[in-house]
Design a protein that fits this description.
There is one protein chain. It contains 6 helices and 3 strands. The protein is mainly alpha-helical and about 150 residues long. The protein has a single domain, classed as Winged helix-like DNA-binding domain superfamily/Winged helix DNA-binding domain (Arc Repressor Mutant, subunit A), CATH 1.10.10.10. The chain has a 3-stranded antiparallel beta sheet with strand order 1-3-2. A hairpin with a 2-residue loop joins strand 2 (about 75-80) and strand 3 (about 85-90). Helix 3 crosses helix 4 (about 60-75). The longest helix has 22 residues, at about 5-25. The protein starts with a helix and ends in a 15-residue tail after the last helix. The relative contact order is 0.10.
Amino acid sequence: MTAPLEDAAGDLVVQAARLVRAVRRLEGDLPPAALRTLSVLDEHGDISVTRLAELDRTSQPAASSLVKSLVGRGWVTTRPDPTDGRSRLVVMTDAGRTLLADVRRRNAAAVADRLTADDTAAVEHATHLLRRVLAADLTPDPTPVTEGER
């Protein structure tokens, strides 16, 4: 990979992270962990607490506590896992879907307010690039590469 491409890719990662932090500030008193959980459920569907913890890079007890809080707010519910009688699946409720859609709509409006109609193609292109990168497996290969394999 060329240095200019690495520099540009690095800047893309930094700016994307900054954008995420900036829109999080718009969410007011909504807990970021709650919105992350709803986003994970939106992306992956009904999942176990263990899988939720893995995807959110947190502990299983922390994920369990968060799920209990979200159940209390009416944003998720749980149901028995049909493939494992000892496990339960976390399921987003209609109220959770509505909340997530509202937050995403407000975030989109806040970003759009800072752009012009002339920026549409550039934003669509940036979104396409981000989707392509995210579709690739970014997990580091655990198998070390030996000098002879390079």
